[in-house]
Amino acid sequence: MADLTFGESLNQLSDASYHPWVWAIFSHIKMIALSRVSREWPGLSHLFRAILPKDAKEKQKQHLRFSSDLLDKRMARKPEQPDIWSFVTRNAGQEEALHPTELYSNGALFMLAGTETTATLLSGLTYMLLKDPDRMKRLSDEVRSSFPSDGNMGMFGLSRLEYLGACIEEGLRLYPPVAVGPPRTVPQGGATVCGRWIPGGTIVQAPILAYHEMRLIMSNILLNFDLELCDPATDWMDQKVYTLWDKNPLMVKLRSTR
């Protein structure tokens, strides 16, 4: 996600340890949950800030600092390949162009929303499928009978895998990546949301999904590997939640099918 957003990779796939920014993001997520609580009692917001752990507050600042520094570096150069900001900056100098403060806040949001949610859903879905071998076999058979290799996978072909789509839908129902929907405020004058009129000022929530990315990742895994839980007796789903799930690593054995 860092490469797509800022044109600079964090090298998470080549390094077995978390990048410091990723650790900062996890702590920042907990801060979001606590700040939501403080907004329910505005008069106590200063007290909430005072009792928050210093380390958590520093991680929140670190997350924002990482994203703003990378954004400054990205905006100072022209990337070889287009990224998110290639499209955002097309309106630079025009009335609808984003203000610099909006660029910074959106850069931090892209990393927060894009790095964790897909991985969380796929981890939960993989765990649930491994606890139900018959359904895992049915899904693996559908993927392997549809594609001779991962190079043949495309958006149209993946969208035709009905059982894969059903599994992702069920995974989103049982283990949504964001346990609470991202809040949005209805504009003054009201608006129609999901077929219902909602008055202005109302806070609403709605899920934001990335179906194609999850289809592609899951299909690639099932095409190339057989999976098995390292410790089937452990209840991986026993987790705390701070806006997102506070989960342990999902330890899985992989056997190549090639």
Automatic annotation (TrEMBL):
Pfam families in alphabetical order: p450
Presence of the UniProt keyword Signal in the record: no
InterPro entries referenced in this protein's UniProt entry, alphabetically: Cyt_P450 (IPR001128), Cyt_P450_sf (IPR036396), Cytochrome_P450_monoxygenase (IPR050121)
Example of a GO MF term: oxidoreductase activity, acting on paired donors, with incorporation or reduction of molecular oxygen
Record protein name field: Cytochrome P450
Keywords: Heme, Iron, Metal-binding
Organism: Didymella pomorum
Cofactor: heme
Protein family membership: Belongs to the cytochrome P450 family.
Coiled coil: none
